[in-house]
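Figure 2 data, in text form.
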Amino acid sequence: MIVDGEDHGKANLQQYTFKNMTPGTYMVEIIAVDFTGKESPSSPKFQYVQE
C-alpha cells in the first residue's frame, strides 16, 4: 500500500485496514506482489477519506 507516496504496509490477500491515520483525504495506490516476489505496476491512484 502506498499512501501519499509513502509505503504504508502490506495487505494480506484482498483486504487491508488503515491504522493510525488522522482524519483527512489521502491518495492511495496498490502494488500487488506474487508468491515469487514479482511486483505488478502500481494501480491507478484513488482517493481515501479518513473521518
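Caption note: The mean pLDDT is 90.
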